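Q: Start with the shorter request: fold the first protein.
A: Done. Sequence, then structure:
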Amino acid sequence: MNLRQLRYVVATADHGTMTSAAQALYVAQPALSRAVRELERELGVELFARSGRGVVLTPVGEQVVRQARIALEAVEAIEGLTVARSDGRGPDLRVATTLALEAELTGWLIPRFARDQPAARIRVVRCGGRDAITAALRDGRADLAIADLPVPADLAAHPVEQREVVLVSPPGLRVREPLTPSALDGMRLVMPARGGARRAELDTLLNRVGASPVPAVESDDRDSWLGWVRAGTGSLLWYRGRLDDTGGLVVRSFSPPISRMIGLVHAYRRLPPVARDFLAFTKEAARDRRVREHL
């Protein structure tokens, strides 16, 4: 028996289906189901019974969930004993991220959060990739991380923003419909300069979909990207809503859609108050930005 299993059982009881519980925890549904079954085998009891499309607790399951809540609250209380500081300094917050996502922190999240909590001291823990982020959270070198989702099942994830990747092209460009990622092979693209965070982000995306375009322009002058597209130099692969004025150009979605989910991630332990505040702040800031983009 472990804390992860207890958290999964409690979430399933709260949400009524394993699918909804997995979505709330942002873990794979098969992983959650497997953990619950393993706990049932270990205890030798059935915790859930099917009811329509969902599940309900069995009588013994109700008892287990009641005790699981007590155990999880006790663990949080014990971990909370290490949070208090007595040296008079402001609270420390360590946030891990990759080079590609660091701009999300330094560009808008940290400055806005610092205005709300000027005493908080935020340190960015730079990591070389997802595995390094996972290690930093597991061994306590970071309180939170901003990362691409999904993440391993032993980490808690809070989706913040889903970004759709679109192709912005001159009106005369002919492409196969529906537009698939394979259409990018050999296509001339306006791309960020090599070695920068934006280029690393785009290269990661292209590797994920297995596409090999041809760089027509490589520049970090983002204000000029759409100008090069209008001039017919190449097309642009970027996020819907992250471009200022695409008037006169053709914006196409991919089929199946290409998207990127970004979220805040932490280990299953009680977060320091400043980390909980940052998590709540980030969710609210992301909601506000989505509202502004749709106005």
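Q: Next, the second protein, separately.
A: Sequence, then structure:
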Amino acid sequence: MPTPQTILTRKTSAAVFLVLTINDGGEDAVRDALGELPGLVTAVGSRAPEAALTAVAGIGSAAWDRLYSGPRPASLRPFTELVGAVHTAPATPGDLLLHIKADRADLCFEVGHRWTALLGGSVTTVDEVHGFRYFDLRDIIGFVDGTENPTGQDAIDTITVGDEDPDFVGGSYVVVQRYVTDLGAWDALKVEDQENAIGRTKLENIEMDDATKPINSHIALNVVTDDDGEEIDVVRDNMPYGDISGSGEKGTFYIAYSSAPDVSEEMLRHMFIGEPEGNYDRLLDFTTAVTGAQFFAPTADFLQDPPAAPEPGSADSPAPEAAPGDGSLGIGSLR
């Protein structure tokens, strides 16, 4: 069994999210740097093993075919913009994702600094976010985030590609969005109105029953079920971020791991288009999606011993198109 990258950890107090694009001619340097990442994390983490340092690398759909020959992950596809009647989930550039997390911000910085030094001029940074854990696992809006993430074997099954894609067993799909929150408008709401927007009590973190929960609440619109009526989930590792000054941006960096991107796409449709159409997520009136991208996180073995680079000018396996009308990521639920 290939060794997955370390995704499932306890909640750490700090994280760094880097989204990069690959410059023309930078493919070889990127392949080399991806192979060095596991060893770099081990070396830096050995200085403070109690701090639970990890880093996960993801590769975007278009970048995959620039870096590797041969098969590609079966469900890796471009993120496409999704436009609702009121709110939009934008698609933004992203060839590489680096998600670093630890209990110490200096360890996250060290890995990010050293890894981007390896990359040099082969990439351009399009988004860099330094996240922090906010009080008792709360989002920037004051509600507990990630309450109902699966645990144990359920979490492993939720994020891990299985035998349905034998060339990529042990990998995971990753979707990200950065949201900018209008805290002034949010804080002006009564607590009761905030709770109705989320579908959960603020202090006690108790989900409203179906008879009470508004149909346009964030939680109500983020339940996705299979053909048997069983709820399908993702593993979320969101982090608040923000500048202190009134003019600075602040909000949530959403990141979710899954064995396939379909559930996130369905969540996104519910949020922005509505379920039924027009019944969009009330939370979007206070927080705006400004980025959106999707990646595949292969196993550590793959990063360190990748397939050959594609021949110049070749197109081994053209990237699949996104499903019509689908987005490829969603904020998930504050559950």
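Q: Describe the second briefly.
A: The first helix runs from residue 27 to 45. The chain has a mean pLDDT of 91.
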